[in-house]
Design brief:
8-stranded antiparallel sheet; alpha/beta; Rossmann fold; 3 domains; 25% strand; Alpha-D-Glucose-1,6-Bisphosphate, Chain A, domain 4; 9-stranded mixed sheet
Length: 450
């Protein structure tokens, strides 16, 4: 895919966006003709679309709504005026009220979609929007139409890449105290090591977007113990990195695919570093993205006290208050204040409930947080391991605890952390309501993996 070019013509009252894909015109047409594929890219990443009516014939109508991170659902419609598959689609594109009727307070545009074979297996996609007046053009562009469309078009590459992504085979693995669920996507043509994408407590679902960028490799994702599908015998019992590393050891041994490559993020990076210290022969390359390893920080004592305060707040006041404290700590820039425990938080500011439902089995706050952040690595074993270890830190998370920890771990290993695009969740493409820059992130990961 080439970069999306934007041309605005104030005299003609048009904005035209164009790009190219490694696909046939017929394949690009299906992005519009199949409502399920349309849902995967139409609308910005943080506002995924749900298509409720789809009649792509002259006189037909397409109706949809988008769901925002706060649960808001703006609605829209298309009135189809011309269709010539797989090359041309023309429709009136308008905003809708909650009942689906046109919102006449906002201007409609005429959209002209042109799909052209440009040779060498590539296809051009051009979307021209014609505005009814200069005032309408100014109004809609001020609402963010240009950036929203660029983000939407930017998701098409991942949709096309998923054509070649094998369907996952789901398995379970019994380990002491838990039953793990994991997914394997085999690519028999790949000559590279099997690639594990892991987090903690984030499970396999968090790597849906990133997986699509690595269809040329055999992939494994899993749910750590206590997360999503991986059940534990005692849901209220804390977990620690040694247990998670042992789980990974058993999983890799079960895969029986030789030494693997691992991309591990956040708590998953902590667990993967423990795995390499214990079983370096199992891992060829480890890309450890922002492990929240508090013990390497210069403000270690304040950071440890703050993580304990997050846990204590959760135990005393419940999920909303504990998560608000966690977000405040994770997003803090610079050294952790010594009076962190005394700083007030408001769960409502983060969309969290203030009521306590009485449960205390959250996998992050109740099981992993304190043990995972306070774990002290065996740096001697890591330094001697044949595994190639790369610490990664997000370009946009400079100064945050996990970013600083990534740099601290790298320094202890005599290395420099590699800057990756975006933030702590830079590989996310809307999973869990979070949006990073997965295209750029995947490109950097591929580069670093070699």
């Amino acid at each position: 895919m080439t970069a999306t070019a934007v041309r605005k013509d104030q005299k003609a009252l048009t904005m035209t966006m164009s790009t190219e894909f490694d696909a046939t015109p017929e394949r690009v047409w299906q992005l519009w003709a199949d409502p399920r594929q349309l849902e995967r890219w139409w609308g910005p990443p943080t506002y995924p679309a749900t298509v409720t009516t789809h009649d792509l014939e002259p006189g037909g109508r397409v109706e949809y709504h988008m769901t925002g991170p706060e649960g808001d659902q703006p609605r829209g419609y298309w009135e189809i005026t011309k269709v010539d598959p797989p090359h041309l689609l023309v429709f009136n594109d308008g905003f809708a009220n909650d009942d689906g009727t046109p919102n006449t307070d906002l201007p409609a545009t005429e959209a002209r979609v042109r799909i052209t074979d440009v040779g060498n297996g590539r296809t051009s996609l051009e979307i021209e929007s014609l505005f009814p007046s200069a005032e309408a053009m100014e109004q809609v562009l001020a609402m963010g139409m240009e950036e929203g469309m660029k983000q939407a078009i930017g998701q098409i590459k991942a949709v096309l890449a998923s054509d070649n992504l094998p369907e996952p085979e789901t398995h379970t693995l019994e380990v002491p105290g838990a039953v793990l669920s994991y997914d394997v996507r085999h690519n028999p043509a790949s000559t590279k090591p099997m690639l594990l994408l892991i987090g903690s407590p984030m499970g396999a679902a968090g790597f849906g977007t990133l997986s699509k960028h690595f269809s040329d490799r055999s992939l494994v994702t899993y749910d750590p113990r206590g997360s999503e599908r991986s059940i534990t015998t005692d849901p209220a019992s804390p977990s620690n990195p040694d247990e998670h590393a042992d789980d990974l050891h058993r999983l890799i041994t079960t895969l029986d695919a030789g030494a693997v490559d691992i991309f591990a993020s956040s708590g998953g990076a902590v667990n993967a570093l423990v795995l390499v210290a214990k079983h370096p022969e199992l891992v060829q390359n480890l890309i450890a993205h922002e492990p929240p390893a508090v013990h390497v920080l210069p403000d270690r004592e304040a950071a440890l006290a703050a993580t304990r305060n997050v846990s204590e707040t959760y135990q005393k006041q419940g999920m909303g208050w504990g998560m608000a404290k966690f977000i405040a700590l994770a997003s803090n820039k610079g050294e952790v204040p010594t009076d962190f425990a005394d700083q007030p938080v408001d769960p409502a500011m983060f969309g969290m409930p203030t009521d306590d439902d009485g449960t205390r089995d959250d996998v992050l706050l109740g099981q992993n947080l304190v043990a995972g952040t306070s774990y002290e690595f065996d740096f001697e074993a890591l330094a001697q391991a044949p595994t190639r270890i790369v610490l990664a830190a997000g370009a946009e998370s400079e100064g945050e605890l996990a970013h600083r920890a990534a740099k601290g771990v790298a320094e202890r290993l005599g290395k420099s952390a590699v800057t990756f695009p975006s933030h702590h969740g830079g590989f996310l493409g809307g999973e869990y309501g979070q949006q990073g820059d997965p295209d750029a992130f995947a490109a950097k990961l591929r580069e670093v993996l070699g």
